[in-house]
Amino acid sequence: MLIKLEGLPFYADFNRKYKISKRKVWEPVTTSVFKEFIKSSRGFVDVGANFGYFSVLASKLSNAQVFAFEPDSDNFKLLQRNIEMNKCQKIEAFQLAVSNKKDKVYLYKHPNTMKHSLVPYWKRAGKLKQQVSGVTLDSFLSDHEIDLIKIDVEGSETRVMQGMSSIIAQYKPRLIFEFCPKFLKHAGGTSYIREIAQEYQFIYAILDRKSQIREIKPDELCEKTYSKTKYSKENIVFTDRRLDISVL
Questions:
Q1: For residues 17 and 131, what is the distance between their CA atoms, to the nearest angstrom?
Q2: Does residue 193 sit within a domain?
Q3: Tell me, what CATH number does 39's domain have?
Q4: What is the pLDDT of residue 121?
């Protein structure tokens, strides 16, 4: 179906119909932070691009070179269609899974196309899977300057970060990623993410469904912290510049 987000047309599947039609904005607080970051970006990586919302938005709002990664074949077709429809010239799209090694991996396909993962985190996950090629950002983008990365891979965020350690060391890109300890425990846990957090001056947690953003400490990025709240996941931001939360 055809929808509009941020004034731009997108093709999306029916699994997203209710969320989008009710809110008219995709992840509103995260989008506000992203729009602020992308203005000055020269190289943006969208890991788990899905139907291409953040990639297309980046292309329209900045001069950044955009690298979009989406391993699922159906989602990748939507991504390509949305890039073409919005006439985005600065996006390079790849049907690849980003991880911590270059190898063939299985993508476990969830009934909700937003929730496909390299991690079999739900019951009956092995019922439908697709073999895809895996890459690391360090090897695949070694010749590019990257200053902003968005990661939404349903539990494989730790592996993605392990495969981009050189990029972090060289460019220290701002990071926006989904954080769900319940999923992450199946693929490396949260300790590496806390290590990376120590390198940044500011860390923010975003709960889009409540339109909330708050500053947190690295040691809060653990399963114990999230087991004490009713929210199982949030989007996390790593940056060296303080955000003006009052305007988000």
A1: 28
A2: yes
A3: 3.40.50.150
A4: 66
Domain that residue 186 falls in: 26-247
Q: Is residue 208 part of a domain?
A: yes
The pLDDT, as a whole number, for residue 105 is 87
Q: Is residue 67 part of a domain?
A: yes
- Domains in the chain, number: 1
- In this prediction, the residues of the chain whose per-residue pLDDT falls under 50 are 17-18, 21
Task: Identify the pLDDT of residue 21.
Answer: 46
| pLDDT for residue 19 | 57
What 212-221 contacts at long range (C-beta under 8 Å, 24+ apart), as own/partner pairs, is 212/29, 213/29, 213/33, 213/243, 213/245, 213/248, 214/245, 215/245, 218/194, 219/194, 221/179, 221/190, 221/193, 221/194, 221/197
Residues in the chain: 248
